[in-house]
Amino acid sequence: MENLFFVSSKLGWALIAPGNFFVILAVAAWICLVANWIRLSRLLLSISALLLLLVGTLPVGEWLLAPLEKQFSANAALPRSPAGVIVLGGAVDPALSEAWGQTETGEAAERLIAMVYLANLYPDAQMIFTGGSGSVSETEYKEADYVRFLFEQLAPRDRAILYESQARNTEENVRNSKALINPKPNEDWVLVSSAFHMPRAVGAFCQAGWPVVPYPVDHRTQQGRLLRLSFDFGTNLRILELALHEWLGLLAYRLTGRSDRLLAGDQNQCSAATG
Fold this sequence. Notes:
This protein is an alpha/beta fold. The chain has helices spanning 2-16, 18-34, 38-57, 60-69, 94-100, 110-121, 143-154, 170-181, 198-207, 233-255, and strands at 84-88, 126-130, 161-164, 189-194, 213-217. It folds into two domains: 2-57, no CATH class; 76-219, Rossmann fold, CATH 3.40.50.
């Protein structure tokens, strides 16, 4: 059942991702033109042109992403002495790292920076990084392996860090980490993830009866500058895809019982009593 959810979510997203959808629209318009369905071809081209204009000039993706990033406060007060810190994967490209023989990070590298910071801030806390392969085809390359390689160079030699390398998505991050750590009730655990992903992550941890202290990083929206022209189609499209993917993920997790709420936030976190 878990494999079916994982594969279907990947394949479904490949079909509806905005970039792929634009290509499908253009090809459909061309087919209609060849078939001499002129009116339908013009309609599809008009829709395509309008969408391209909107994405190419306005930060539509940021408008969708901003409500997610505002759910949890940035730089919120941290517990004095937490039991541990959990860092979710998504910062490293395992296949690219394998190809070049070094850890290749992406736009979410702030997760790893926070991991170093918190490892130094809490020398006695248990650290765990959880992340395997989010790919359907290149499953042999595990993100945790390359993060381990990186932290052997950056972290103190005597710093104990657990690496969980089998999780393919957020729900498996939670389940595998909980089985590995077996957290006790009323313990404080700090959770590190991207700000836009934190609502889904916290919802999944709450569903598992594991309250966490959110530490959001990797913000993607320009707070206070959302009403602006943005002539950067590539960046706008990437953020739009990120936002749609996350909102669909929130909905899918809620409908399938992988999260205990649609949108977790500072005002509706789970309590330690659920653990």
